[in-house]
Here is the input.
Amino acid sequence: MLLLSGTLPTSDVSLTVGRVKLDGRRMSIGDREVPPEMLSIGATAMMAAAVKTTEALGGEPPMSVVAGDLGEGAGSKLVFQYLTEEAGGLGPSIVTLHYILPLRNEFLGFVEMADYWAKRPFLVADAGALLIAKATRVCDKFDLFTPDAGEISFLADPDAGHPAYVKAALFEVDTTEVPRLIAQAYAAKNTPRYLLVKGPTDFIVEDGKIIHTVSEPNIPAMEPIGGTGDTLTGIVSALISAGFDPVKAGLIASKANRLAGALSNPTPATRVFEIVDHIGEAVRKTVDEQ
Amino acid sequence: MPSSSKDDGRSVFLFEHFRDGMRAEDILITAGFHTRSGAPPPDVRTGCDLSISVPTSETVDAEKKLLEHGIKVWDVIFKFSGNLPELQISKLLKKVDYGGYVMVRVGNMKLTYQKKSGVIVNVSGGGCPDIPLLAVMMIGKTLDEVAPPAQTGFTLCAYTLQKAYEVALKQWKEVA
Here is the structure.
């Protein structure tokens, strides 16, 4: 079972745990309705993509643990607390951490506790979770990161605590020399076993070795669209949960995310949920071709 | 103005929120303290934070000044002798022209607006919880009517988005 965790952009910090459902643009998590205006960049895009993927594969919908958080951290604390104290009882095989405030003690508490679960889950980190994993030097406790170009620069820079602290020299080369940045990130031990680096070219990496690259379809208008990285994280998480090998899952996710983008005929003004609408079809087609 | 005495290292103020660190720096600079800012030392770093250091001899007065302004100091590291890596935001700027739209990227944050109208059409990047909120608040509004993200955001991602917003607003006004 896949457990997705993250925060919602609302002042209602209450914790919600439940199955994610998506009916058109109506999303619910357990008995919590997610207002349509919240369907945007972040955890909602990731969860929607995961739902579409599990539907396409005929599997069970993902579980999710969320709380409202406007950036001050109260909701993030509740999510970490649930992950640490109760999530093990659900028995998820994969846990994905996403938009969440990097809280050092709470994060480390969960990472340590996951070692004591009956079966250690496959751990995926993106966004805020990726930042705190590097800051606390526990990247090797994770299995998959899904960084974008800015984030792989950050992982490659041994001194940077956040992408805003990355040396300018690394920022400048982020799209043209990603393989070198990947090598530097592994050398600095700032990576898990697998990376799915997203950008104009996606890189699927295992133990520092680039196994696949995906560049087509190349849709420059995808870059400005907030949430397209989140959908990729949702798709790959759902594929791994369905039993795909992480490298194969990364390859399919990369191709399917791009295909969904192409099917939406995007412009820089396209919203991510216009792309989400095509993820099911894109996943089915991509899986069939493999 | 506080005076700095013999070199006995610096004290580093840590804050729960990045936004508190930014406010603290403004307050202490205005009050004449000899501040430096940057990422906290690695063993207390979260990834989304900013610490402020002052000469150790100025510690008590600086903390008192912050408390006067309602800034809560989460912790203080005394006699710290290392360096605090500085923010690089001003050096991490890229612009991409998409014809009718311009994307401004600063660090890990991207803001895209329509050239003609100045309407913000997308916000991308980041990893902290205030970014989805800011995206909801900003998309669909023009650059000159939207509230600057730093007013609402708490985090370094929001501050980075603020810089992208400032670049976009300046550029749009220059062309308009």
About this structure: Chain A touches chain B through 62 residues (CB under 8 Å).
